[in-house]
Amino acid sequence: MGETRVDLLHLLEDLRDAYPGSIEETILTEIVANALDSGASQITFESDPALSTLTTVDNGSGMRRRELARYHDIAASTKTRGQGIGFAGIGIKLGLLVCEEVLTETQRGKSHVATSWRMASRHRAPWKWVPPPGMTLEQGTAVRLKVHNTLSPLLDPGFLEASIRRHYQPLLDPTFDEFLAAHYPKSIAIYVNGRRLEKQRWEAPNQGPLEIRLMRKRKPSAFGYMIREKFAIPEERRGLSISTYGKVIRRGWDWLGLTPSDPEAVGGLIEVPELAACLTLNKGDFIRVGARGSAYLAFRKAIQEAVSKQLAAWGDARESKEYQRPKEVRPLQKDLVRVLEELATEFPLLTSLVEQHSGGQKKLPLGSSGRVTDPRAPVTASVIVQAEADKNTEEATKAPVEQPTGEEPRDAGPAHAFSTPDHNLQLPGKGRARKPAHYGLDIQFEDRPDDLQLGRLVESTVWVNRSHPAYRRALASRSIGYHIVLAVAMALAPLAAESANEHGFITAFLSRWGEALDQPASR
Q: Which of 16, 185, 272, 325 could form a disulfide with 329 if both were Cys (CB 3.0 to 4.6 A apart)?
């Protein structure tokens, strides 16, 4: 009988590469995330360059002996999806790559134990029980990392503070204290080398609140603000940051698919706790398929609307005629959606952009008879659908209900179109049927004079570059439709196929689009 072996070093390196920042930054942010998940209200960091150690102590729930033993298994976790922001203690486990020793002490009730852990070879990371050194007080977990490199950023208090403030900005901004109090009843205190990180409010000449409420609840489901400076703000603060449970997940404008006329002077932060259930495995991004993906995309659209209104109030929105989409785009987009559906079987990676496919994004029937006036209704629907999916997993395997179709949807409907008791989604009734909300491929336009690409793919949106000389030539020669199709094909090619097969994908894409002329027009 054979035995499956794991190249542990290679596995940890792959996990490290799944994070965008440096390994030291990843270790630090994951330590904080797991401390918060354990219910800690106080987290301390103590760096000692002389001993090459970083010690962190929290007052969370701690672990029992059995749980600490399991903690040494890669990706072992007792967490429930949607209830935390840490990834199975990966921050500590990645520490094996840069440390001589990882000493962990934990105390919970009468259980008070400690272990020493190290990487011995590519395939072995032995650990052993050791006497507790007394780093914890009454309850909680402490970790001491002894790093290989005496110049490691983990030994620099400035690096520790800057990283924590960047990744946990809502926890250190008094603006979010009341909003996060439901999840963190006790104020979170973080110390670096004995000094508490004081909370700092982001002040700017122009500041506007962002709030998204569901079903007329008093407390918003998403809360934050936007700021606008007179001059360019630091690059790491530009754009709108989105966080969940106080941890910043994405930054910039690309994830939002929206850019103000002066993006270098506008920033902001919005906290959406309910999106914790939509996080990817490494908690570094959001899922974009299935019910969870629909919830994320619906929140994203509601945030887009709120941001657009604020930008318009500041006179920073792009609403002039030069920024309007060509009239050919709407019918063209429908054709391209059909092309994606046909090519999805040949190029499976395109399924993330197809609205309706097995196991993927589902079209959500929104609204009811009567006129819908609440633009946040799609968010309500998605969140309720998510709750139902988590609560009734058996129903997820049943045959899908036939989706209603009908006339073009009108502006949104009253908040009471969705029944609040039992979190049930009220589907369209006896009145006129509505078309589902759109969560698939979208086409938008932007000006990038220094970019030689015809277009680029961001989230589920292809942004066509209007500043490209070919775009202006196509507009003058009335061949803008073909130009947009080519730009979409070239933007999707890196997603759909490997670099050696991108030309074949573009050829197939254009061929299928051209064949649409021979098909009978659908109603």
A: 325
